[in-house]
Specification:
The protein is mainly alpha-helical. The protein has a domain at about 10-55. The protein has helices at about 5-35, 45-55, 60-80. It is elongated and about 60 Å long.
Length: about 110
């Protein structure tokens, strides 16, 4: 006969994990606001800009913002990565700033 599962402890563990993920998300958003210089804006201005972006459904209007965001992350990765780890090949970086597995140093 199998041992019964402890659903209460599993639910508690999932709740703890969800809280940790939410906390990390908030911390990363804080870091993004600071890194982009948006911390110089007051809360009303920042909220207004984010609302406009969230309400914009036309891809043509959002594409330039996405392009600038990708360029920001690529230039930031170049500034922080050691020279040996910079993307000097023809493979492009992923949107999250990581390299494709085939272009990583030592990948087979």
């Amino acid at each position: 006969m199998r041992k019964p599962r402890d659903f209460d402890s599993e639910l508690k563990a999932l709740g703890d994990k969800a809280r940790n993920l939410k906390s990390r998300k908030v911390q990363q958003l804080d870091e993004l606001v600071i890194a982009t210089g948006a911390d110089a804006l007051n809360a009303d201005e920042l909220a207004g800009a984010l609302i406009v972006l969230a309400e914009t459904k036309e891809a043509g209007k959002r594409e330039p913002w996405a392009t600038r965001g990708a360029a920001f992350f690529q230039s930031r990765a170049r500034r922080t990565a050691p020279a040996a780890e910079r993307n000097t090949g023809s493979a492009s970086a992923q949107p999250d700033g990581t390299q494709p597995a085939s272009s990583r140093k030592g990948a087979t």
